[in-house]
Structure to design on (135 residues):
């Protein structure tokens, strides 16, 4: 008699598990995965444009300027180097201005992408009511 009880209490559990497996197999796969972000595509495009512009700017530097920038970057966190005259040297004004234009274009593109992303995230609060009204 106790074996009848066990099998009868086990039967509803197996039935529920079977129904859940069947239900999960019928769900679309996209329900379980995240939607691809639109920001990734436009961000890569902006980054690619920045990379090309930056490479062009960097190639316009003379070997002495490239060495100076590399040395300053390497000694950025060295207190003794920061106090030296070599650290206080600057690039020519026209190269600094061209670099600031490149950065300005990059930040403008990023700001535009951010605004598009924020606008895309605004939910339609009445969608549930609209969907219920369609039926």
């Amino acid at each position: 008699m106790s074996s009848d009880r066990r099998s009868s209490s086990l039967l509803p559990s197996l039935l529920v598990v079977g129904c859940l497996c069947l239900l999960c197999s019928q769900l679309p796969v996209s329900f379980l995965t995240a939607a691809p972000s639109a920001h990734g595509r436009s961000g890569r495009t902006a980054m690619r444009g920045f990379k090309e512009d930056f490479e062009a700017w960097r190639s316009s530097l003379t070997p002495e300027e490239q060495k100076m920038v590399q040395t300053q970057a390497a000694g950025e966190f060295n207190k003794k180097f920061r106090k030296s005259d070599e650290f206080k040297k600057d690039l020519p004004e026209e190269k600094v201005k061209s670099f600031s234009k490149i950065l300005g274009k990059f930040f403008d593109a990023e700001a535009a992408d951010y605004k598009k992303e924020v606008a895309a995230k605004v939910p339609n609060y009445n969608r549930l009511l609209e969907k219920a009204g369609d039926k």
In short: The helical segments are 2-26, 38-59, 63-74, 79-82, 85-88, 93-121, 127-134. The radius of gyration is 31 Å.
